[in-house]
Amino acid sequence: MAEMRAFRDAVSGWATGGPGGPASDLAVRLGVRTAVLLEGLSDLAAVEALAARRGRDLAAEGVCVVSMGGAMSVGRYAGLLGPPGLGLRLTGLCDEGEQRFYDRGLKRARAPRRGFFVCVTDLEDELIRALGTARVEEIVRAEGDFRAWQTFMRQPAHHGRPRQQQLRRFLGTKRGRKIRYGRLLVEALDLEQVPAPLDDLLTSL
Known about the structure:
Blueprint: H1 2-15, H2 21-30, E1 34-38, H3 41-53, E2 63-67, H4 74-81, E3 89-95, H5 99-108, E4 116-119, H6 123-131, H7 133-142, H8 146-153, H9 163-171, H10 177-188, H11 196-204
Parallel strand pairs: 1-2, 1-3, 3-4
């Protein structure tokens, strides 16, 4: 696992202008065969949590889960890790509103689009819908965030919005909260309730 994190760090450095040699060497040594491209760290936390719940050791299987820091980076990462670069199989999750970036980036990298699964709004929204808002509020309370949630709800900007949208927005209001809840919401799921995009992604690996 530590070595796969080193590979992920090497890829991030490569994507921001560093040398590609360290990533290439590690890919060979670790037998990396698949890169899972995700928009952010909360998605990464959710994917890794579901893999763990299903007894999967993705690193041992040669699968590296990568946070790209936003959908607009997909062309860069696909070029480095896909056919023009390391030649890895590419898969991942895509928010519905960001599909144009994925379509263009994957086309430039000559990578198949079929390995990417679309969330209607984003993965947090999918997880909230799967669990139901009452269950998510229970998790918020258990995590000691209920007072912050109540303060958030009193803000006029959030009045009148559907509770699902309010919860989704709340998760993004504090640094690190989305990442923590990405894992927590997956851990609370009945494994028969896993949202289709996330379930399809794990099944495809």
